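Contributing: when you submit paired examples, paste them exactly as shown. First protein:
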Amino acid sequence: MGREHSRWLRPGLTAQILAALALGAAFGWGWPGAGASMQILATVFIRLVLVVIGPLIFATLVVGIAGQGDLRRLGILAVRALGLFAGMSLLALLVAFGLANLFRPGFGFGPSTAAVADLGAGPSESFWIRLFPANIADSMARGDVLQIVVFSVIFAVAVSLAGEAGRPLLDVCRSLARVMYRFTDLVMLAAPVGVFGAAASLVSSQGLRVGASFVRLIAAVYVGLAILVFVVYPLLALVFRIPLRAFCQAVKEPAAVAFATASASGALPKSMENMEAAGLPRSVVAFTLGTGLNFNPSGSTVFIGVASLFILQAFGMPLTFGDQLVLFATLFVASKGIGGVPRSSLVVIAAGLPAVGVPPEVVGAGVGLLLGIDPVLDMPRTAVNTVGNCLVTALVAGWQGSRIGGTDFGPDGISGLTPAVPE
């Protein structure tokens, strides 16, 4: 009785994270010097989370794919997931361009082109080459999720084709997956501490205010994110008959972690654990959430679209409708597969603007303007990325006749095409 009473009194992980976020912000504002030193807490927490990702994705994908014994379903899963990712990105960009043209955040700003942003070097290899690992140990060490997914899928196919000879490896991966989920639970006990450190460090360096010149930009991005979360996502859930209450229960903790740490990778282990606990197949969860980090940054896509037009407006370079279509297509393609690069959203913007004739000095100066307010917009868009990836995971699972929260979902004629195989 006493244990149940204490459990009832103890706040849940989401409440602890939000409380730590508020306390960290207050600490960073009141004691900026000490707040800056709290970054070590966030760094340690993020490292503990990132070390889970490689083994967890590898184990869950191998079990999910090889454990089913039906390789045809893997191809169907990939096509459905990538199709939904593309559709989600298109919707996000449409929302972004519409709001940027409505709010016109850059008009009247008139900045100087003297400052050029230091973005760092982008990837020198083709995206398609970077998909395939040369050394899986190196991919694990760098946390390259796409390379881990590609290796794990091929490895799982090999285990499946090996028949009885591959069964011991399959059993090892089952055990590894269980252990890594427990590892995640242990790491999440430290989440409030890590979030406190991240908030204190951020506020100590950025302050609680943002320049008035960026208010419309921030408003446009926030409205775009709100449209995704409160309009687009619920409509998709209703169409596919996903129970919203059960879905929200499953995503609230991963979204809170993503928001507080501004790291979609940091929220990935908890997303995988919660979506599988909600009743979705392990193969769908591992593949869709793993690839979604790069292929479905819907929240970041809203920021990329609004911020690109903000720069063009600020430097007096408004685009014709045709030019906007070119920029739209360029940003859509550039936003895929670049999630592992530091400040990846800014790199995508820098890669997309030259397609419509923007000079390099304007690109550099424009991105430099965004660097100062990027942290203010990074946390909410990362949370939206996480929720969007979880939603696509539920949609793909619905196509396979799965259940979430004990409730069947999927539109008539879509769910139930292929019964989910029990794990």
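Second protein:
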Amino acid sequence: MAISQDEREFFVELGSRIAQHRKDSHLTQVQLAETLGVSQPTMNAYELGQRRVPVSALPVLAKALGVGLEELLGESQAATKKRGPAPKLQQQVERLAQLPKAQQRVVMQMLDGVLAQAGSR
């Protein structure tokens, strides 16, 4: 599948950010590759923008590098702070996402009930 010039530029820039954060974290390509479950040449290709980084690898990369997804993807601080949930709410949503699906449904039903009750006042 062909890749557009914009996509190519995105992956080159993403790779550059990954390499910089990896170096800042004092990790080798081998160490980061092991964390992702890929080979060192694949990690090198990600950093050079020669291969697309799978979307599923982005959260693992961000966590391993100690940065947020927004920072890894090159979103500016101003853009990430314009709107959105308060930091504590964001943390709770992220924790909720880590729960098994059955527990997520229970929490969502509880929230729906509370919100419905608050809306009827």
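If you have annotations for the second protein, write them as plain sentences, like these:
The radius of gyration is 19 Å.
The chain has two domains: 5-81, 87-119.
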